[in-house]
Design goal:
With 470 residues, this protein is mostly helical. A two-stranded antiparallel ribbon has the order 1-2. Helix 6 runs antiparallel to helix 14 and helix 15 packs antiparallel against helix 16.
């Protein structure tokens, strides 16, 4: 079964998804006028303006923090270690590239999620790819397929993976038994997820900025004391990305392909651009300015912060330590821990354990919120299965703390790949709506107006959106 799963995963990631994601990123980058570069500074303005109170939902900043909570997890610390181990330093370049063009894809999916969001029985906004597939395309079957893949990957498997990383890191740093960590994670996760979407948003708004800033400050300190080595690290990444150092060895094609596959695969897992997951958080906000494209501006910053900032910090820590070249055989979170120990001493392993606790725990909470939204889609907003699902999520957290997850991780890669394929196809089919909403927003902005969504300007869209949401 492991061989079959690996073969399917290799087919999806090696021959379909890489090209589809790059095509989507380039398409939206060009059609939206290089929006991620042209309006990069403006995105920060929208994000900080959106911290004002929101009626009927959460603020755009809270939605941003919720999506960043899911993005910033083991992918930033363990995932970068895996990418470097399997793909070499060149994998980091491809992580950067997929993030920069993926910012436009993230803008598109988050804007659509806002446009097609709905209001549930408790007054919360919900939405995401499943909702715009049903409402915008009239294809509920696509939404059902997407939801099932997301619930399996994010609601169950990825939460087990996050718990596994926390348990492993604490076992190394403090010699605490895996079962004890599992019990603590179940209690902490249960307290927050039973509080509902707004509790999750408030938790993310406080914890995410703190944990990201702390980790970055340590990384910047290490980069500063190793400043003379940074140009060499950058050149190493570029040379490995294009096989320059392998040109005389006859292995250029294989080396570059491995770097590309691992960089894009781990980059997508980390920043989720085009996957459709972060769009679920984007839909929960009441944006300011009151227009779907506002949330597109805010959410594309999450891709930048996750990959260009935080993943790069981890890569710098590892490459500056020399652990990769030393041939230690370490990968994942163990490689990151050992790299930090090299820089700062034994307390580095303790710091990584605490950082991964914050990073991965917030991911568990945010991943659950994504899965809950898609469960509501499948059940048409009924609450009957919610208790059972919450208990199942907590069971997977406990299982992840105790189990070996190699096969489960491969199955998650397959589910994540299928999610992304279905979502990107839907994004292409709804690209006209994205372009219209973006132009409408920018025209109002150029006229000195506060961009406001007026659905009457687009009669077809007016029939498709939820009148309670817009």
């Amino acid at each position: 079964m492991t061989d079959i799963a690996n073969a399917i995963s290799g087919l999806i990631w090696g021959h379909v998804l890489i090209y589809l994601l790059i095509a989507a990123g380039l398409f939206f980058t060009i059609r939206l006028g290089f929006i991620q570069f042209r309006d990069f500074g403006y995105s920060f303005k929208v994000m900080f303006t959106s911290r004002e109170g929101a009626e009927g939902g959460i603020s755009s900043f809270q939605a941003f923090c919720t999506s960043l909570a899911a993005r910033v997890g083991t992918g930033n610390m363990a995932g970068v270690g895996v990418a470097l181990y399997l793909g070499g330093p060149g994998a980091i370049f491809w992580m950067w590239l997929i993030a920069l063009i993926g910012m436009a894809t993230s803008f598109a999916e988050s804007t659509l999620a806002q446009a097609y969001k709905v209001k549930d029985e408790e007054g919360n906004f919900r939405g995401g790819p499943a909702y715009y597939m049903e409402r915008g395309l009239g294809k509920r079957w696509m939404g059902v397929l997407f939801s099932l893949c997301l619930i399996l990957a994010f609601g169950l498997v990825f939460n087990a993976v996050q718990a596994n990383s926390i348990a492993a890191a604490f076992n190394v740093a403090f010699d605490i038994p895996h079962y004890a960590i599992g019990i603590a994670l179940v209690l902490g996760s249960g307290f927050i997820i039973f509080g509902g979407l707004k509790t999750i948003a408030r938790f993310a708004e406080v914890v995410v900025p703190f944990m990201a800033l702390t980790y970055l400050l340590l990384a910047l300190y290490i980069c500063a004391i190793n400043a003379e080595h940074l140009p060499g690290v950058f050149m190493m990444i570029i040379e490995h990305a294009f096989g320059i150092e392998q040109a005389g060895a006859g292995a250029i094609g294989y080396g570059v392909m491995q770097a590309m596959i691992q960089g894009i695969k781990r980059g997508l897992f980390s920043n989720e651009a085009g996957m459709g997951s972060a769009a679920n958080a984007a839909a929960t906000a009441t944006p300011n300015p009151p227009h779907p494209a506002s949330q597109g501006y805010v959410q594309m910053l999450g891709v930048f912060i996750d990959t260009i900032v935080i993943c790069s910090a981890t890569a710098a820590l590892i490459l500056l330590s020399g652990q990769l070249e030393a041939g230690s055989g370490l990968t994942g979170i163990a490689l990151t821990q050992e790299a930090l120990v090299t820089h700062v001493g034994e307390w580095g392993a303790v710091f990584v354990a605490i950082a991964i606790l914050f990073f991965a725990f917030t991911s568990i909470v945010a991943n659950y919120s994504y899965a809950e939204t898609n469960l509501m889609f499948l059940e048409h907003n009924h609450q009957k299965g919610l208790l059972i699902f919450r208990l199942l999520v907590l069971a997977m957290v406990m299982f992840g703390s105790l189990g070996e997850l190699k096969l489960v991780w491969t199955l998650a890669d397959i589910s994540m790949g299928l999610m992304a394929i279905v979502n990107v196809v839907a994004l292409f089919m709804l690209s006209g709506v994205v372009i219209w909403l973006t132009k409408d927003y920018q025209q109002q902005r150029q006229q000195g107006l506060i961009p406001t969504f007026d659905k009457s300007k687009h009669p077809k869209l007016a029939k498709e959106v939820d009148p309670q949401a817009w």
